[in-house]
Amino acid sequence: METKLMISFIFLAMICLVYCDEPVCLSRFDYDEKMLLKFLRIEDTVAKFDERVTSIVQDFAKKEQILNSTLDNVLIKYADEFQTAFHTFENTTRQIVDEFKSEINASKEKNDNIRSVVQKLQEDARVILQQASDATEEIKKSATKDVVAFTAHGPADGPVSSTLTFTTVVTNIGNGFDTATGLFTCPKSGLYHFIFHLVKLRSSTRVDLCQCTLGKNSASTGIIAKIDPEDPTSSGGADIGSYGVSNSAFIKLVTGDTVGLMSCSSASTFDPQSSFSGLLIQID
């Protein structure tokens, strides 16, 4: 409103400068009349100007109101869109962060599970290795415990009717062979393999017969090894050479059974290389 009054006064002053000439020689009445007409014209002009200014101001106010309303609508619209976009961005970001955290936790859980599995496998491997080591030791002990074997050579002098004895024992695992009696006493029931190898003594004198029978519990098994060469002349011949003969048998024994070489020729007919062996091949 103050702006409107100021514009009106400025316009009035301009009109006064234009229309207010120096009065000529007129009567007082004429002069007053003339001035009155001028003022009336000025007042009419001012009124029109005031109306115009009022119209301009009102139009400006309307446009300002429309502009403000439009700006408000635009701001509200974009504010709503910005708020919606911000909320969408915030929710998306939160979702991504939550998924990332979830992935990290899942990865950590997987790593923990993998670590636990690896530790379990390592522990199982240690247990298995220990069990394998214990089993190996047990097998070794069992194998050593279940092994029964002997080998003796060098027939000793003795009567023909008795069991052949030997002077040297090479192996006697299980302590089943008795060098004093020449008998093997079964320490563990099972299947045994016996081998006897007889070498006839090489001599310049006549040695015809060299033999032994495998006996079980002082009874012949019927397994015999025998050498009986013929002399081509009475002065010697085939008997002067050395001959070897072997035989073997698989015999089922129970604990306490005895096996030996019986019904042998004199020990003087055997070469020291003659031998007697036995081995447990399957325990009952």
From TrEMBL:
Sorted UniProt keywords: Coiled coil, Secreted, Signal
Positions in coiled-coil regions: 104-138
Main location: secreted
Name the record gives this protein: CAPR2-like protein
Localization, UniProt: Secreted
SMART domains to which the protein is assigned, alphabetical: C1Q (SM00110)
Signal sequence, renumbered to the chain: 1-20
Keyword Protein biosynthesis: no
Domain of life, per lineage: Eukaryota
Domain C1q, residue spans: 143-284
Keyword Coiled coil applies: yes
Pfam family, one: C1q
